[in-house]
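Discussion board: Methods & Data

I've been asked by a reviewer to show the raw model output for two of the constructs in my manuscript, not just the figures. I'm not sure how much to include, so I'm pasting the format here to get opinions. Each protein appears as its amino acid sequence followed by a line of discrete structure tokens. Is this the kind of thing reviewers expect to see in a supplement, or should I convert it first? Here is construct A:
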Amino acid sequence: MRIDAKGGFVEVLPVSGDFDRGVPLRLRLHHPSRAADDLALDLAATKTGWRTMTAPGADHDWNLQLEPAEGDAWRLRGRLPRSQFAAHLRPALDGP
């Protein structure tokens, strides 16, 4: 996932895996210490991935979770360090 601060959007681009491109995604951004500052962003499908016209602040770390907007078939996790604008999301556990 990446944040385009100038364009004011968040974008998720698939690198590997088999994702249903017609399903909207939800990106949850968890503040490391204040739940009141957590965000949930719904991303719509685009030609290259998924996008939402929101750009969260980069003044602290974010814990990330990506999942389908409806249901809980899978989820990917990652961490976005302060002042960074891209993160790799992956399963929390390695496969068998």
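Construct B, same format:
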Amino acid sequence: MKTPVKGLPNGTVTALATHQYGGCAGNGTDVWCWGWNGDNALGDGAATTGTQDEARRTLLPDAAKPYDALECGEKHCCVVSS
């Protein structure tokens, strides 16, 4: 079953990557993630555990901005910066 992701900003998403439990979308400087948030997997600093169907802005370190690529593995997503 397909479920729309709420919370993504309009017109700014240039990268999308998904994995088994969720995914992330980004625009080169910011990333929004959704899905399973066990052990702060979404990277938003929230202590909420469970599945989030609304995208949350991820807290990237300044050293990761701007980033070149957004990639996901089996249960995680990462940004790649040069």
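Answer (T.O., handling editor elsewhere):
This is acceptable in a supplement if you add a one-line summary per construct. For B, something like: The radius of gyration is 12 Å.
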